[in-house]
Write a structure and sequence with these properties.
Helix content is 58%, strand content 4%. It is mainly α. It has a two-stranded antiparallel ribbon. Helix 13 packs across helix 15.
Length: 349
């Protein structure tokens, strides 16, 4: 076998042959290294690839050359010629010449071609594209390699898996309901927790930064009823009592009795939960307006008790005025929960 057939190929064709022959690391080799590696790989696996049409020219008789046995056999004419006496040639004596003295100029002249030949030999080993088509092919291969590496790095970051996990968990009525409750609780605590001065940051004239006073929540308020009374009232009306009612009055347990599946049943009925929330918000935080028939009449006075159960009017007012959206914000959160519950039930039918 000979490497002539492989050397006549372009590097792109060699890479394609290497991919068909399952030669590893073919894209990272130079052309000469790829020719040697592909030749050795095809020679070692001749029974496997000799039947493939892509390597038929490589294993053909025209590229293999003559058989070693045939080359060793000599023709009759050659054997007859070997028997003939050889002609003796006249011996000529050449007078030995004295070696010339080497001067620095001659040494420089003799060394220069060697240096040039070394540079030429090194340049011949570099795989320089010979045409714009090869340049485009090399650029495309580099782009594909960079794209593959970037894809591997992206998969190693696990961002896609995390995104799908967040999307799967967020696409549920439970997550939406928890988000509504989190917004209400955050707004209530942000507005009710008193802050105290901790320290003042120094001013930096070089950065044009003025002194700033830093305030943090006062932890001592956690030991008073000014904090726990509004928190308890909001918890009872927003999730404790609705959770209790929706657990016992769960309509999803009896719906679709012919094909009961765990995906269509909830431990707590979301629709009942939000309806009870809306009713409790109305009974606790709604402020009735004065009748239009009584306005302007002297001697008419009405008193409205705005307390709710054991909670004083001041506690009810703290919750009503500090929750985001106040009373209407609580009702909007309940309505959003009702709509999502109905939509989720319709999708599961």
């Amino acid at each position: 076998m000979s490497t002539t057939w492989l050397q006549r190929k372009r590097k792109g064709e060699l890479i394609e042959l290497a991919d068909r022959a399952s030669l590893p690391d073919a894209h990272e080799m130079l052309k000469d290294d790829l020719v040697d590696a592909l030749f050795k790989h095809l020679e070692d696996n001749e029974p496997t690839f000799a039947k493939q049409s892509a390597f038929a020219d490589f294993y053909s008789r025209s590229t293999r050359g003559a058989s070693p046995v045939k080359r060793e056999r000599s023709s009759p004419s050659e054997s007859f010629t070997a028997l003939l006496p050889s002609k003796t040639r006249r011996r000529t004596l050449v007078k030995a010449t004295e070696p010339e003295k080497t001067t620095p100029e001659k040494a420089l002249i003799t060394r220069t071609p060697q240096a040039v030949s070394r540079v030429q030999s090194r340049l011949s080993q570099v795989d320089i594209p010979a045409s714009p088509a090869q340049l485009a092919e090399v650029a495309d291969q580099s782009f594909q390699a960079a794209k593959t590496k970037a894809t591997e790095l992206w998969h190693q970051t696990k961002i896609e898996e995390f995104k799908e996990l967040v999307r799967e968990n967020a696409s549920s009525v439970t997550t939406i309901q928890l988000l509504v409750l989190l917004i209400e609780a955050t707004g209530l605590q942000w507005n009710t927790l008193q802050t105290t001065h901790v320290f003042t940051s120094p001013s930096v004239a070089s950065l044009s930064l003025d002194a700033q006073t830093i305030h943090l929540p006062d932890p001592s308020i956690l030991l008073t009823s000014d904090f726990w009374a509004p928190v308890t009232l909001w918890s009872l009306t927003s999730w404790v009592l609705p959770l209790l009612f929706s657990y016992f009055f769960n309509l999803t347990l009896r719906s679709n009795t012919k094909h009961k599946t765990a995906s269509r049943q909830y431990t707590v009925d979301p629709l009942t939960f939000n309806i009870v929330r809306a009713i409790l918000a109305y009974s606790a935080y709604y402020v009735p307006s004065a009748s239009a028939a009584l306005i302007g009449q002297p001697g008419t006075a009405t008193t409205v008790d705005l307390s709710w159960g054991p909670f004083a009017e001041s506690t009810v007012r703290v919750v009503r005025t500090n929750v985001p959206g106040q009373y209407y914000g609580l009702q909007i959160g309940a309505v959003v929960g009702v709509l999502y519950s109905i939509y989720d039930a319709a999708l599961k039918k």
